[in-house]
């Protein structure tokens, strides 16, 4: 059995207090330096984050300002376009009103009324002629004593068409002569009224009952005569109305007014578009509070734009009056 002997503990070295104080001071200064460095790092990181946020905010504000300027410019461009359109429409209306007061426009309106008079009333005349066709055929067949087995009876269906056709042709010729400064002879008008009178007589003959008329009441005869005479009398009244209107148109003087003063001609009128005071530079202002850049970007109507607006005014339709 081996007996271990314990070594005696070394005696501690003597401690230098001054050196220990310096070592502890150095360690405290090192810890303070580490804490100061951490604070500086945290402060720098926080400042960097704030700077990034400021940059992002400035970027958003710049985008909003740019969008606002673009909206201002678009609104001003739309206002300028509306101004040009309304100005062109106003000039067009003014020129049309000036042209409507000219002698040429008055003459064109008279010619339009003459043509419309024929287009409206001649079909009415033909309609009354169709109404009286049966009465004319029956009256002529009764006077000639022909029946359905005779070719003459069938031919008489075209008699009213011939009479009304002659009247219509006389009316058209009278209108054409009046438009050319002429006048229809009285003999032709007498022929037209003779055709209408013949149609009336034949319709009245057709209204008279055949055979023994003692059993037919006078009221029935009068009613039949009225119904038969309605067509030819209406045709005669329509023909007379066409003549009266056409004569009134022929007597109208488009070159002088009611006081006898001469109506200005187109060549004497000022029909060029008016030059506004702001025609060279029409500027639509921005609303209060807009930035100066948006104001500088305001839409202006240049002389080229004014020229484009003038081209929208012309030409004015010749028949607009």
UniProtKB/TrEMBL annotation:
Transmembrane intervals: 118-140, 152-172, 193-211
Keyword terms of this UniProt record: Membrane, Transmembrane, Transmembrane helix
Region (Disordered): 272-298
Protein name, per record: DUF2637 domain-containing protein
